[in-house]
Write a structure and sequence with these properties.
The chain has 63 residues and is of the alpha+beta class. The chain has one domain (2-46). 16% of the residues lie in helices and 19% in strands. It has one helix and two strands; from the N terminus they run βαβ. The chain has one helix spanning 28-37; strands spanning 13-18, 41-46. The chain has a two-stranded parallel sheet. It is elongated. The N and C termini lie far apart (44 Å).
């Protein structure tokens, strides 16, 4: 998709957030290597869950 831009951006960055394993598309390490080799920067934010399925950053009331 970034290759189809009419303009040439100063930087190319992909922002990713995730709460689990890869479940669609090519394997993560393959995709990461392809993106990095083309000069694109990857920003990632892992969403860490506890055993109850809640984010470790959850600020709501406890049950």
């Amino acid at each position: 998709m970034l290759d189809r831009l009419d303009e040439h951006p100063f930087r190319r960055i992909i922002d990713i957030s995730s709460d689990g394993p890869n479940n669609q598309g090519m394997p993560v390490l393959e995709a990461r290597a392809a993106v990095l080799s083309s000069g694109i920067v990857i920003n990632d934010l892992p969403v860490v869950l506890n055993r109850r399925g809640r984010s470790l950053f959850h600020t709501g009331t406890r049950h």
